[in-house]
Amino acid sequence: MDQEKNNTHIETESIASVKPNDFEHIPNAAEVEKKLVKILDRRLMIWAFFGYFANGLDRNNMPNAQTTGLSEDLGLVSNQYNWAITMFFIGYIILQIPANYVITKVRPSIMLPTVVFTWGAVVCFMALVTNVQGLYALRVCLGLAEAGFYPGIVFLLGSWYTKEELGTRTAVFVAGSQVSGAFSGLISGAIATGLDGAHGMRGWKWLFIIEGLIAVTIGAVGYFVIPDFPSNTKFITGDLREVAVIRLERQGRSNTKSGLNMQTFRNLFTTPFIYLFTFMFICMQMGMGFLQNFPIILKTIGYKADFANYMMVPIWVWVGIVVIAQGYLSDKYSNRAYHILAGAIYTLIWYIILVAVNGGNVPTVLLFISAYMIPPVFGISPIMMTWANEIYACDTESRALAIAIINSLGNLAPNFINVEVWSIVDSPDYRLGKIVTMGMTAAMIVMCYSAYYMQKNKIMLPKPSQRVGDEEMDKKKTHIVRDDEF
């Protein structure tokens, strides 16, 4: 018994003497860290990519359902169709912030797959609707179900990856949605030509069932592959677990859970970063307007609907490539603000061209060139969320809630603004939309530089609560629990 106490004391002392950035006590620490990152990439990143791929398919499938008979069968008029799209965002905004607080209290390996499985089931049930009221209700349910996914994954990535890794991984995750934009038209086209009328069901019903089952399958796989946190993931044990914890601590990122307290609310609402990032996110979303309305522009100037949709396939693939490249460069050369500023300035130049040339009624060749030049604005999103992960690294709750607030409010406002400034009656010129977006892109540049200046000079940065600080000091004095030691 005395010997056991002595061994425990010696072991505790040895661990207590280890600095957060010191791997010397771990044999082959560099190899262990490489193995850890490979495990995370194979499990978390691949699943997150395909999860967001399914997310993009399911949240944006209304236009495809429209082309395969949805409005005709349900008797939807234009206004009802637009409201069906809006219903999603109502549910999405309502639950997003509380959902990202919940993920700090439960296992992500349970919550996130359940989120994906649930929204897939909701989409499948959409095949059963017979009236607009049922469609509205299920679209709200879809928004509620999807609310926790994007901010939850961004938060989980920030709980594992270092600053040198996080930008690329967040960008790869976000690219899943862009790739879904490329494939959604192909999927709906194949369904329209091959399944419309099969077994007595219209194409839109098959569309909902097939895309819903894709999400259900991905959700089910998630229960077996994705991690929780560095301290409690079952397949990350021993040296792998210790390296996972230490490498984030040495960068000042805390996974300590302190619960909601006054410091959490001060971090969120009395520091300027939450406001700057939210308005930057709104401006970034507005910058996507030209590309989101590009098929409508092509149809208005005389191209057939199928050609307009097929033209979006290579564009969305290109967007995915650009997004990943921007994330990689932000990791390689550091300083997130520089990469956001570069993407915003480049986008602003092209919106100025779109407004200035021929009063907005630009030649067709310039339209296509612009469609391939605008994508850097999409790459701002993952870099911005990576930056938010780093700014709010002080404690778990502040980081989780900040990500959710920025994403939810940042998605909400553009949906109301776009209705007016990117009105379909203004196609193909969309002069008002281009002018407003140009102004908001310029405003994003100013806000980004302001956030960078305040971070560089340590002005009003979020801070850990005293409780969090005390707990982290206690952790450094106690042994890091290793599953292989029980």
Which secondary structure elements does this structure contain, and how are they paired or packed?
Blueprint lengths: L1 H15 L12 H31 L2 H6 L2 H5 L3 H25 L5 H18 L6 H15 L2 H10 L4 H32 L8 H23 L12 H12 L12 H8 L3 H15 L1 H4 L1 H7 L4 H28 L3 H21 L7 H10 L2 H16 L4 H26 L9 H26 L9 H11 L10
Helix pairs in contact: 2-6, 2-9, 2-10, 2-11, 5-7, 5-20, 6-7, 6-8, 6-10, 8-9, 8-20, 9-10, 9-16, 9-19, 12-20, 13-19, 13-20, 13-21, 15-16, 16-19, 17-18, 17-19, 17-21, 19-20
Organism: Thamnidium elegans
GO molecular function, one term: transmembrane transporter activity
Protein name: Major facilitator superfamily (MFS) profile domain-containing protein
Walk me through the structure:
This protein has helices spanning 2-16, 29-59, 62-67, 70-74, 78-102, 108-125, 132-146, 149-158, 163-194, 203-225, 238-249, 262-269, 273-287, 289-292, 294-300, 305-332, 336-356, 364-373, 376-391, 396-421, 431-456, 466-476. It has 486 residues and is mainly α. The chain has 2 domains: 29-229, Up-down Bundle (Growth Hormone, Chain: A); 261-463, MFS general substrate transporter like domains (Growth Hormone, Chain: A), CATH 1.20.1250.20. The longest helix has 32 residues, at 163-194.
Largest sheet: none
Beta-strand fraction estimate: under 5%
Percent of residues in helices comes to over 70%
Indicate the CATH architecture of the largest domain: Up-down Bundle
Biased composition (Basic and acidic residues): 468-486
InterPro entries: MFS, MFS_dom, MFS_trans_sf
Subcellular location: Membrane
Membrane topology: Multi-pass membrane protein
